[in-house]
Amino acid sequence: MTGVASVVVLLGVAVFAVWSSQATAAAVGRAVTAGRVSDDYAQATTAVGAEQSLVLEYRLQPSPQVLARFDQSATALVAALARSYGSLDDGFPA
What we know:
It is rod-shaped, with a radius of gyration of 25 Å. By secondary structure, the chain is mostly helical. It has two helices and no strands. Helix 1 (about 1-60) packs antiparallel against helix 2.
């Protein structure tokens, strides 16, 4: 009887070890995705700040160069938001 109990205990420990490694791997994947999304949002925040600054600059001194820099900031904002949305689609829970 003691042999059967030992086998059951060892089997239980093995199942727990496999489950815990799978749960840890899933948590690491979510953490990596959260880091990517956070970086994308930080880049979007920077682009918004640049856009706001360029709007004020354009009001004071309208020029094609300022308008071109504004367009670059707008493109960077859209790209950062698209990357973050794509990261969320990769399985990160909203």
